[in-house]
Every structure is written in structure tokens, then in C-alpha cells.
Amino acid sequence: MVVGIGGEIVERVMMVVVVVVMVMVMVVVVVVVVMVVVVLVVVMVVVVVVVVVVMVVVVMVVVVVVVKGSEGLTYYEHFGGGVAGAGGLVAEGDTFTLNGKPILILSGAFHYFRVHPDHWRDTLKKLRASGLNAVETYAPWNLHEPRQGVFDYGDGGEALSPFLNITRFLQIAQEEDLFVILRPGPYICSEWDFGGMPSYLLRDYTMQVRTYYEGFRVPAANFLDNYLFRLIDYQFTKGGPIIAVQVENEYGHFGYGTDPRDLVYMEFVRDTIVNIGFGESLLFTSDSPTGTQDLGAIPGG
After folding, report:
1. Phi, psi (rounded to 5 degrees) for 100
2. 85 and 237 Cβ atoms separated by less than 8 Å
3. d(CA 101, CA 65)
4. pLDDT for 100
5. Pairing state of beta strands 107-109 and 89-92?
6. Which value, to the nearest 10 degrees, does the dihedral of the CA atoms of residues 191, 193, 194, 198 take?
7. Interval 180-215: pLDDT, tens
8. DSSP H helical segments within the chain, as ranges?
9. What range(s) does the Glycoside hydrolase 35 catalytic domain occupy (predicted)?
10. Average pLDDT value for residue range 47-53
11. SS3 annotation, 52-68
């Protein structure tokens, strides 16, 4: 009887051990399967990321090679820039040529007056390294002429004066193999106070900004004349980096619906830019392809 009971106990213990072992084996199998699945997912994610990165790099390399045209040449060498007498930027249908050669303009915005000049070169180097061939910048009227008739281009002795050395900025851009698209206003928007226009304009209680109104037209012309005069020799056709100049800024938005814009004012801005010596550079206006469309456009701009 004692032996029978002992045998039954052993048998039950063996069954428990077998069950425990089976459970442990199942747990191990499940853990292994889960780990394998996780590893496969991670591998797939890594493969996808690598493929995407490779594709992006290939596309950037292709773009740079296509735009640059000739291996080992800078953009200025390829397009014959850096010397006076070069042909300017020309719009032909939906394409551009620079000095007679086709060019795909890849431009990034970098506003010199927003960044300390110690960082200009580094930022421009990064623009160039990313595959761009041009940099676009606005001109802040309210900083360059903080008091009416008093101009500052880096030598004004004010806290922000070092930020305003536009000629130095243009020199660095050219040294870093970038063309320049200049947007001098007089209104620039740019999420800048009063669109870059100086607040002293509002001393005239009847002021009508961005119109042919004499109280605005005269000081605007004075600023454009003063600002652009010092940049004449920085045009691409004279050996510099400027390939295009914007007339005003998104003027089609200045109004309501299809109401006529002050095109006399726009023609005045265009003529001011041309008469000061920028007739060889491409002039353009900027508006959205839908909505405002050509409401801010003028011939020759």
C-alpha cells in the first residue's frame, strides 16, 4: 500500500514536471518568434531608410551635375561670370538662360539683416552645399534709412549697423559660388515691421503707402536710388552676383478682388530701378499663380 501511494506520487510529480517543461518550451518558442519578428521589422525599417537616403543623395547629385554643367567648374566659371560684359539672365518662355546658357535656378532665401555677419559665410556655404545656385534676399528700408535722409550700410554706428553691410554680403555670396536675387522693395512684407517701410512715413496723416502718392513716392525713390546706386557694379553683367531684381513685392495682394492696382506706382518703381542702372538685370514681379495672378504684374517687370 505504501509502495502504491509512492508510485502514484512519483507519477504525478513527473506529469507536473513534463507540463512545466512544455510550458517553458512554449514560452521560449514564443519569445524567439517575437524576437525574430522584431528583428525583421527593424531590418526592414533600416533597409527602407537606407534606400530613401540613397535615393535622395542620388537625386541631389544628379541635380547638382545637371545644373553645374561641367565637372570641376564653379557656376561662375560655367556661366562666364565674374567679368564685366557677361550676358544677363533672360526669361525665354518657361526657361531661363544666363549669358546664353540654360540655367535651372535653385534659390534659397537668406535675409542678411536677420543674421549676424559673422555667420553669413557659414550659412551661404551650407546653401551652396545643399545644391542651390542662388540666394534671395530682401532689403529693409527702415534699417537702411532709420531717419529720413540718414543711411546706414554697416557704418552707422548703431547696434544693428554690422547687419547692414549689403556689399560685403554680396561679395561673400559670390565667393561662395552663389548668384543673388535682390528684392529691394520699397515694401518687402517678409514678416517685418510695417513691411520694412520706415515708421516716420506715418507723420503724414494722409499717407498712402505703396501708391503713386507724392508723400510716399518721393521718399521711396530716394531710398531705392541710394540703395541701388551702390550696388550697380554688383550685377552679373558687370562681374557681380546679382542676376535678377524684384519690382515691389507681391503687389497683387495689395487690394481687394479684381480692383485695379496702382499700376502707375508699379511702373514708377520699375523705372526707378532701371534708371538707376539696373536695366541689364532681369526684373520680375511676384504673385501667386491663383487668386492674385497677374494683378500686380506690369510690362518689363
Report:
1. 85, 0
2. yes
3. 15
4. 96
5. unpaired
6. -140
7. 999 999 999 999 999 999 999 999 999 999 999 999
8. 2-68, 75-78, 120-129, 141-144, 166-175, 214-229, 263-273
9. 96-292
10. 81
11. HHHHHHHHHHHHHHHHH
Q: What is the mean pLDDT of the chain?
A: 88
Distances (CA, A) of 207 to 87, 186, 248: 41, 15, 18
- For residue 118, give Cα distances in angstroms to 21, 33, 93: 71, 57, 40
In the predicted model, is pLDDT for residue 4 greater than 60? no
pLDDT at position 151 is 98
The answer to whether the CB of 179 falls within 8 A of the CB of 128 is no
Q: For the chain, how big is the Rg over CA atoms in Å? A: 33
Distance CA(280)–CA(274), nearest Å, equals: 8
> Residue 117: exposed, middle, or buried by beta-carbon count in 10 A (0-12, 13-18, 19+)?
middle
pLDDT over 80 at 226, yes or no:
yes
Q: Could you tell me the three cell numbers for 258? A: 479684381
* Secondary structure letter of residue 96 according to DSSP: E
C-alpha torsion 38→44→46→51, nearest 10: 180
- Residues 6 or more apart whose CB falls under 8 angstroms from that of 231 comprise 166, 167, 170, 182, 240, 242
Read off the pLDDT of residues 130-162 as tens digits, 9 standing for 90 and up.
Answer: 999 999 999 999 999 999 999 999 999 999 999
Pairing of strands 95-98, 107-109: unpaired
Q: Which long-range contacts (CB under 8 A, 24 or more apart) does 66-74 make?
A: 66/104, 67/103, 67/104, 67/106, 67/131, 67/133, 68/133, 69/101, 74/177
DSSP state of 149: T
Please determine, for residue 3, whether its predicted confidence score (pLDDT) is greater than 60: no
Give the integer Cα–Cα distance in Å for 107 and 65.
16
For 179, the enclosing helix (H) or strand (E) is: strand 179-183
Amino acid identity of residue 221, one-letter, is: A
Q: How many CB atoms lie within 10 A of CB 146?
A: 19
